[in-house]
Amino acid sequence: MKKILLPTDFSDNAWNAIFTAVKLYAEIPCYFYVLHAYEPSTLNLLDAKSQQRLGVIYDSLKQYSEQQLAKVLDYMNENHKNSNHSFETISKSDTLVEAIKEEVSKKDIDLIVMGTQGATSAKEIFMGSQTVKVLKNLKKCPILAIPADYNFQVLRSMVFPTDFTRKYEKSELLPLTHLATQWKAEIKVVHVAVEFLLNDTQKANMKILEDRLRESHFSYHQLPFDTNISSSIEHYVMETRAELICMVRHHHGLWERFIKEAVIKKMAFHSKVPVLFLSEHP
């Protein structure tokens, strides 16, 4: 049974992430936890009168959270008829990051699915930053980021960018290979580089990756770039009509150090297709 955490703020974007998750994993037995976090109480920092006023506010937030979660649960139970899937709701007085951290540990979560608002003015600063905060603080759990308004229908191909500078563990690739198997989808391993001559370490890592993907349908491609990896990947995805990007968070620290480009942050904000951020391994 796959355990998937679905953080929500009850927005259209959050609903879209839920719908994408249930469609993407339609054939997989899943237990979905729908989580809503509202800000923690700061009552102990205030005087008695202020505490009383804020207490009323937080009681109201708690009531709102529980009522809206009940509506989500009712809707999914009424409209989502899939015997593979079960739903549970969680309401927590905490920051989003801390609430997710606690539930990932307590429930042994396999995957977090979150909506992203996209990079448009203040939306990038507020909604997008929530996804990036979770990416930065929950490095041991895969995260699937769903762009606003993305309408998922089918998974035919996935893009996996790499420069072969590190070894991939079999376990960290499982979220990718499981999706490839489930959907019979192709994994496009895309070598992103200025030049494509491999050193001995890269050749060895490429061979290991081939072994890790041997039971999946995969192909190799070369993608040159000048200064912007994110745009290069995004254009390639659009050209090939791939439905998902898969990235290893730890890996791209190297790219970011060399070209001063926050690849992970940019992909979370700008991608037009879902991005699966795999766990970070040492």
TrEMBL record:
Domain UspA, chain residue ranges per copy: 1-146
- Which Pfam families does the entry mention? Usp (PF00582)
Q: Known PANTHER family for this protein? A: STRESS RESPONSE PROTEIN NHAX, UNIVERSAL STRESS PROTEIN UP12
Describe the family membership recorded for this protein in Swiss-Prot or TrEMBL.
Answer: Belongs to the universal stress protein A family.
- Protein name per the record: Universal stress protein
Origin organism is: Arenibacter aquaticus
The opening ranks of the lineage are: Bacteria, Pseudomonadati, Bacteroidota, Flavobacteriia, Flavobacteriales
